[in-house]
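seq as requested:
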Amino acid sequence: MLSRLQEGDTCLDLVLNHVEEAVQVVNREGITVYYNQVAADMDGLSQDEVLGKHILQVYPSLTLETSSLMRVLETGKPVLNQQQTIVTSTGKTVTILYSTFPLYRNGVLIGACDISRDITKIKELSERVMELQAELLDSKTSGRKKTKNQEMGNFTRYTFNDLIGSHELMVKLKVLGQRVAASSSPVLVVGETGTGKELVVQSIHNASPRKHGPFVAQNCAAFPATLLESILFGTVKGSFTGAEDRPGLFELADGGTLFLDEINSMPLELQSKLLRVLQEGVLLRVGDTKLRKVDTRVIACTNVDPEEAVRKKELRVDLYYRLNVVSLRVPPLRERKSDIPALTSHFINMYNRKLGRRVTHVSEETGMLFFAYSWPGNVRELQHAIEHAMNVTSGQVIELEHLPAHLRQLNNSGTDSESMVVKGEHSLPEILKNVEKRCLLEALQKSGGNISKAAVQLGIPRQTLQYRLKILGLLQKYNS
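struct tokens:
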């Protein structure tokens, strides 16, 4: 049977490409030998990217223990009607309902077959219905309505599918984030300003068992020490002038998640109290003598190197080690420039809806400039650049002239030490062409000369990469 699949049974292929289920078959070693088009569409991959590759290579979020195909190959027993959330190699998060069967020939196990269906939307809709039912019940019993700001029932809106990007660093971040979400351990998220740390934090919360609980966020740099203490831990009447019996954010987030941004800005004396809550699960309201138990998961963020913050005595070393049980680094945009086209398209679509515009794409020169720039403000800076351009353009294409002034004047600014050093005899198009060439060559080198893999790394269609290679006179060298 497997030899027939490997040779390509045309009739069977026609049938399996028209069913609603995704079908994947692996041989005894875990190598994919059949993969229908439904599976390819569900995973956001091409059949060529999966066939002939090991199952764990294609799905980085899976392990020998969590992959049903590998488990069936190990035990020889079927796995029926199971639900699982996976992250594909393109960074897409998918929830599937699947059954996996062993394949025997003459009593000998020769492979396994997985039949699955994408239920991501169904799962989201069912959860939303449950949330609406809970809100309706609460409004009936309390006599008040929920606010419309509760977009997911807990004042959050982002999931892992809102983290745009298929670069290896982003895929790893999503995979680890999904795994971390299942526990209640503290998490430390590290990343420069504008990289999207809060998106990661909200995604962890909404992928966790606490997703129906509260999500409470607080910037630790926003208030002085005395006020921040009462905000976090609460107060009792008479503890200071005007104080009332009020719960703090820890109690308000009980059963859910408390997001503490800029944790290194929290005064050191408060950090010791935070450490106690993390270690013992109890707190004292300001002015109180009664210990209160809380079940609140803490996710902290910092935009500076936490070890540097420890050296500067901005962060207690014991608190750092307690928070650093799980550490997630959100990469800056300059380290994942292959995601720029996908991010650009996402922001164009977003502002088309908000501003009522019909912009379709950026010009070739603008796209090259985006690749050349170092983006010190990261994804947020790119978003603001797109928003600026779409406010001033009247056409369907974003040209260089529509960009903010600091981007238009890059050839004179000398701010990007890596790629914006402009020599008098070179024009901006020449510089951008050289930068583009270097980016393409680096992607091809990492992919071993495979154009399809390089296109995935760069976040562009294979045809676009082939066209750019042709323009740069490199296509014949890498055409395979």
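The chain is about 45% helix and 15% strand.
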